[in-house]
Every structure is written in C-alpha cells, then in structure tokens.
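Collaborator request, handled under Task 6.
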Amino acid sequence: MILSGKEIVKHMGKEIVIEPFDPKRVNPNSYNLSLYNELMVYNDRELDMAKQNSVSVIRMPEEGYVLQPNTLYLGRTNEYTKTENYIPMLEGRSSVGRLGVFIHVTAGFGDVGFAGYWTLEIFCVQPIRIYPDVEICQIYYHDIDGEYDCYESGKYQHNNGIQPSMLWKDFLK
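Structure tokens returned to the collaborator:
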C-alpha cells in the first residue's frame, strides 16, 4: 500500500522526516523533492565497477546549467529524509520526464531506516537547461509487511553530499 499525501503529513516528524518540509509540495500520494545546486560527473568515459572512479563537481549557477545527452550526471536532493516503518521510493516527476530528463531510473528503491540526502542519477535525451532548487522528483512511501531489519549502516547511510557509486567496496570482500 502507498501512503496518501495526507498520511505522509500525518507521519511527519515521527516515522517520516523531510527537512526542509513545505506543505505546498505534498501531492495526492507523494512529496516533491528539489535539486541541490551541484552536479557530479565521472571524468572517464570508461568506468570500472571494481575501482573507485574519478569524479568532478559542477556548481550550477542560478541561471541554470545545460545538460548534454549521453552523460550521466549525479545530483542530490536539497531535502534530507529519514524513514522508519515505511519503504521510501523515489521517482522523477512526469513534467520533468516529458522534457526527456530521466531521474533515478534504476535506483529508486530505498531501505526502511534510510537517513540522508538522495543521490539522483540524471540523464537527458537532448540538451536541456536545468536549474537549482527545481522540484525534480517525488518521494512516496510503501507500507512494509513482516519482520525486517532497519537499515542503520551502509555505504550510503547518513550521507551529506552527492554519492558516486561505491560498488567497488563490494569487490574488497
């Protein structure tokens, strides 16, 4: 079951934390999150899953930044979220997708107990100007049934910034 917008509001400050929170961003069954003013790109055209890949940070000016096709951009939400007793899920907004910008296409499934900022995988099909603070994606919450372990530590838990892939750490085991 997906929580309605009214249920999200009802659980704010308890099982659901969104900081900062703006009641105008509540939708019928989700909440709009906005884009931080930095992007990250990988420096090499060929990446290696087993190694830490080199990245660069791009600071987006208020007048926007033009994304280029065939480049993966990593962004971050302005909002810090924390969720207990629900599964947080992230999707791009349809208005953004209709411009050919794909947000979080393959990794929108969160863990119960996740706390931090969401790193967004951003890809576009044609050049497009994006802006800091734009409401770029939406978070929604699934009920969970059965016993579960709360996500308390991991590669991405309690992050403060954009997180490139840390899959390379899995190869160290």
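The cover message to the collaborator said: "The helical segments are 5-10, 94-97. The first helix runs from residue 5 to 10. Please let us know whether this matches your experimental observations."
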